[in-house]
């Protein structure tokens, strides 16, 4: 079993208000695979009806896996922008 020692908080902005966040979340789970673990996700309102998916992802810094993750998430259908909002050691 992997010991997670880093948590990364991401804000995933949609391409538009019609984005299916459940589909984005499922694709995110596939993307992180076994190098990371999604701890939690939550859809939060931003402004003017626009919402964002906030995701907390656990990593092990010795195994790597965070490199290039933002670029890979941007390629998920429905994703417009990705921002790392927090990074902490556990």
Produce the secondary structure layout.
Layout: E1 6-14, H1 21-32, E2 36-47, E3 50-59, H2 69-74, E4 79-89
> How many DSSP helices?
2
Into which percent range does the helicity of residues fall? Answer: 10-25%
What is the 3D form? globular
Query: How far apart are the termini?
Result: 16 Å
Strand content range = over 45%
Q: Structural class per helix/strand content? A: alpha+beta
At CATH level 2, the architecture is: 2-Layer Sandwich
Tell me the count of domains.
Answer: 1
The string of secondary-structure elements, in order, is: EHEEHE
| Residue-averaged pLDDT | 91
| Annotated CATH topology | Alpha-Beta Plaits
The strand count comes to 4
CATH class: Alpha Beta
Query: Going across the major beta sheet, what is the strand order?
Result: 2-3-1-4
Which spans have pLDDT < 50 for at least 5 consecutive residues? Answer: none
Q: How can the largest sheet be summarized? A: 4 strands, antiparallel
Task: Describe the fold and architecture.
With 90 residues, this protein is of the alpha+beta class. It has one domain: Ribosomal protein S6/Translation elongation factor EF1B (Alpha-Beta Plaits), CATH 3.30.70.60. Helices cover 20% and strands 47% of the residues. The chain has 2 helices and 4 strands, in the order βαββαβ. It has helices at 21-32, 69-74, and strands spanning 6-14, 36-47, 50-59, 79-89. Strands 2-3-1-4 form a 4-stranded antiparallel beta sheet. The longest helix is centred in the N-terminal third of the chain and has 12 residues, at 21-32. The model has no long low-confidence stretch (mean pLDDT 91).
């Amino acid at each position: 079993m992997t010991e997670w020692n880093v948590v990364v908080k991401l804000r995933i902005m949609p391409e538009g208000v019609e984005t299916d966040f459940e589909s984005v979340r499922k694709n995110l789970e596939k993307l992180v695979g076994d190098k990371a673990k999604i701890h939690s996700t939550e859809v939060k309102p931003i402004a003017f009806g626009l919402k964002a998916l906030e995701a907390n992802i656990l990593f092990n810094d010795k195994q790597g896996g965070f490199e290039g993750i933002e670029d890979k998430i941007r390629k998920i259908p429905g994703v417009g922008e990705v921002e790392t909002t927090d990074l902490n050691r556990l």
